[in-house]
Design goal:
Elements (H helix, E strand, L loop, with lengths): L1 E5 L4 H12 L3 E5 L6 H6 L3 E3 L5 H11 L3 E4 L7 H9 L9 H13 L7 H7 L8 H6 L1
Parallel strand pairs: 1-2, 1-4, 2-3
């Protein structure tokens, strides 16, 4: 199966990609940094796209023609500092990795994913604003 993993070099992606490859899947992994592309190749995945570049993601997904997309992006936590700036609040604190360790820092700082897909599908709901940035600015 062709699997497209967003966040393939993150904390979860580093564990997930080798397991998918070991199971025989054709894995295409997104990473934000070119320096991490070699890591994906070593793990048997095809590195594609900067996950935060819309055009790159669109082209990479079109080329990969994935049957499954796995979203493990944690770098999208950028909404917290953006909201703080818009509202004139203090910037959110980052958990120090040395004190909390990698796993602790992830648990403390990882945004909890939310999806509007069920509400859209089941209830016909549509958000008031096309993006969180526009909604926060109101």
């Amino acid at each position: 199966m062709r699997v497209f993993v967003a966040g393939a070099t993150g904390v979860i992606g580093k564990q997930l990609v080798p397991r998918l490859v070991a199971e025989g899947h054709d894995v295409h992994g997104m990473t934000r940094r070119e320096s991490k592309q070699a890591m994906l190749r070593l793990r048997g995945a095809v590195p594609v796209a900067d996950a935060l570049d819309h055009d790159q993601v669109a082209h990479a997904a079109a080329r990969a023609k994935p049957e499954v997309i796995v979203h493990q992006l944690t770098a999208l936590a950028g909404w917290q500092p953006a909201l703080a700036r818009i509202r004139g609040a203090r910037q959110p604190m980052q958990a120090p990795r040395l004190a909390a360790g990698e796993a602790g820092a992830v648990l403390i700082t990882l945004p909890r994913a939310a999806s509007n897909a069920n509400a859209k599908r089941e209830l016909g709901w549509l958000p008031w604003h096309p993006s969180w940035r526009q909604g926060f600015a109101k």
